[in-house]
User: What shape does this take?
Amino acid sequence: MQPTKIDLLINSRWIIPVVPEGAVFENCAVAIDRQRIVGIYPQAEARNKFAADSVVDLADHILMPGLVNAHGHAAMSLLRGYADDLPLKPWLEEHIWPVESRVLSEQFVADGTDLAIAEMIATGTTCFADMYFFADRIAERVHRSGMRSQVGFTVFDFPTAGGKDPDDYIHKGLQLRDSYKGNDLIKIACAPHAPYTVGDETMRRIATYANELDMAVHIHCHETAQEVSDSLKIYSCRPLQRLDDLGVLLPQTQLVHMTQIVEDDIRLIQDHNCHVVHCPESNLKLASGFCPVGQLMDAGINVALGTDGAASNNDLDLFGELKTAALLAKAVANNAATLDAHAALRMATINGARALGWQDEIGSLEAGKSADMIAVEISSPSQKPLYNPASQLVYGNAGSQVTHSWVAGKALLKERALVTLNEQNLIRRADQWRNQISPE
Ligand SMILES: [Zn+2]
Assistant: This one.
């Protein structure tokens, strides 16, 4: 029989496809054609079956789905380390918002987003959800980089550099959504900043648009205890209850943080099939509280993983985030079996895909899905000996071990080198911003 012509064949020592759950394949190959996964085969079989235009051999690597960073503010990478060791409210109100009002511009967003994209590609993320100002510039930078992203247009009730009023934010956001219709790699979502910065009328409008347009809603929610107690004082109910009353809790709603949770909150999330995005390092750094990941997962709630912005993390390495998430989930549940290694990997892949409505496209290596994949090299002393590849990825890995990355079959990282971005140029621009933001 004639071998079938395909674009790309990747031979890998180990493959963790994420679906089926817990599977680890050894000495197999992934066949890719026209941006999609054809299937996974034993290497000998694949050699006979396919004639590939390009073959990549990964002798000491784990091949797996690209990671999904389900919450962040990419451009804030230019504020990495600008204001540290402060609680959320003074951090935001006395440091982050004032510096943003001073320096925020389209160029800031373009340069910061590029810097973040470079860091994410180099550390294994192939898809990210973003929420920031000048969403049109974010989408443009994503498009140039070849990455996949849900770009959220931020909505506030007050004016910022990104808009005059709710009308203005929403109008520009919907226009952007129209202009990216049909783009396979970029989706536009509505991102009301938080319950405490968006009023009832605006929330109702957002719920209407989200319903009519089947548009995702991405919102910070129950980030701190103070957010909940303020809401009880002002609205006589918890923020999540208020979002429910205003119609914002939908199957496409992504609730970011959720560190303050009681039984009624869990019921509301279950009833509406909303998604939770857990950002453990940001929550730890701002001492915001602990998201009870094990309890949410036991309740059947989809929990995805995010880094949040680099200003509150301070890196975008989702492998580091994975380890923190796995350790923290055990401590919070007081159970070492909570969030085992494979469950943690699912949180950073298929759960993220589900949260962003991309579960049919990405999040696992399955026939028919888009070829969004990464390779992690397992050859350093700190990674040997290797008994359990999944454990190694969660408990003993760092993003710096990622060597290759593909989105829709296109290479974005080859042998640790960025393909679509100029690293030296990005570093030079970041240094220029540092001098402009905080001149010595
Ligand atoms: Zn955030």
Q: What stands out?
A: The first strand starts at residue 4 and ends at 15.
